[in-house]
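From: lab user (bench 3)
To: helpdesk
Subject: output format question, protein + nicotinamide-adenine-dinucleotide

Hello, I'm new to running complex predictions and I'm not sure whether the block I got back is the full result or only part of it. Here's what I submitted:
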Amino acid sequence: MKIGFIGAGGIAGNYLASLARLGQPVAAVCDINADQAAKVAAGLNAKPYSDHRAMLEAERPDAVFICLPPGAHDSQTADAALAGAAIFTAKPVGLHLDQALRTRDAIAKSGVVNSVGYMARYSDVTDKAKELVNGRALGLGTGRFLCRMPPNMVWWSKRAICGGQMLEQTTHVFDWFRYFLGEAAEAHAFGHRGFADDVADFEDATVCNLRFASGAVASITSTLCASAPECFVTEISGRDIYLRAIMDNRLEGSIDGQKIDFTGEETGYFRQIEQFLEAVRAGDQRRVRCSFEDGLRTLAVSVAATRSIETGRPEKPIEV
Ligand SMILES: NC(=O)c1ccc[n+]([C@@H]2O[C@H](COP(=O)([O-])OP(=O)(O)OC[C@H]3O[C@@H](n4cnc5c(N)ncnc54)[C@H](O)[C@@H]3O)[C@@H](O)[C@H]2O)c1
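Helpdesk reply: Thanks, we reran it on our side. This is the complete output you should expect:
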C-alpha cells in the first residue's frame, strides 16, 4: 500500500510509529513547513512535499493520513479522497461545519474507505465496557478532560485555529459518549476565563450538559490549566450498572452488585491504524469504528457546546 501524510507534526509521529510497528512503509510526507517535511521524510526514506496537490498528483497514494490543526483543514481531505486515496484523519475533522460537510460529500462521492482518529473507541477499556454494557439502557454520562496546555502550543492557544478546548480536546469525551449513549440532541455549556488568559484566548474551564435523543443525559467538565492525575475519564450509569473508564487502561465499577476491576493493555492508538489498513486492503468500511461522517457528528456536538457558551442558551448540533 502506498501511503502519504499531509501534516507532519506531533500526531503524525504517533501514527508513523504504528505504521512502523506494522511494517508499513510511507512513500511521501507533505507539510507546509518544508523543513519539517524534509526532516520527517528523511527518517522514512520518503519523498518530501510542501504542496499536498503536488504530492497527490505525483504519488497517487492508496491512503493519506491527514494530521492538521483543526483550523488548517481546507480542501486537503477532499482532494485526497477525490484522487482515490483512503482517508485517515486525526480528530477533530475540522473547525468549520460547512467545510467539514463539503469534505464529507467529497468522500461519499469518491467512495473511499475513511476513518477518524478517535482512538478511545479502539481501546481494551472501551471493548470491555461495550461487552459489559451489552445493550443495557444507560441514562447518565459524566466525563472530564482536565489537562495543562503544553508549552509553545502556538495554534492550540488560539480559538481561530483550535476552536477552544471542547472542540480540540474534550471532543474525545463527546465522541466516547456518542459511542455509548447515541446521538446528542442538545448542549448547554458555561465557561470560565481568567486563569489562563496569558496562554489561551478562550475559556480555561468549561462545563457542558448534554441531552441525548435516547433521553440519557451527560455532564462534562474541562480545564486546560490544571492537569489532573487522570485527565480523560468517562463514567456511564444505568439501573444497577456503573462503569468508570480511566483512559487509557483502567475500567472500574459494578454491575448488579458485581465489582468490575479491569486493566487494559491496548490504548487504541495502534489498533485504529491496524484496523484502518485492514479496512483499506479489504475495501471494507465496516472495519472502521469512526467514519468521517461519524466524526463530523462529534464535531457538531463540540460546535453546539461552544456556541452555547456564547449564546447562553442550549444549542442543538446540526443535522448531519
Ligand atoms: N489523541 C489524539 O488523537 C491526538 C493527539 C494529538 C493531536 N491530535 C490532533 O492532530 C491534529 C494535529 O495536531 P498535532 O499535535 O500533530 O499538531 P502539530 O502542530 O504538531 O502538527 C501539525 C503540522 O501540520 C502542518 N500544517 C499546517 N497546515 C498545513 C497545511 N495546510 N498543509 C500541510 N501541513 C500543514 C504544520 O506545519 C505542522 O507540522 C489536531 O487536530 C489535533 O487535535 C490528536
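A quick orientation on your result: Residues 6-12, 30-33, 36, 52, 67-70, 72, 90-92, 117, 119, 155, 168 surround nicotinamide-adenine-dinucleotide (CB under 6 Å). Let us know if anything else is unclear.
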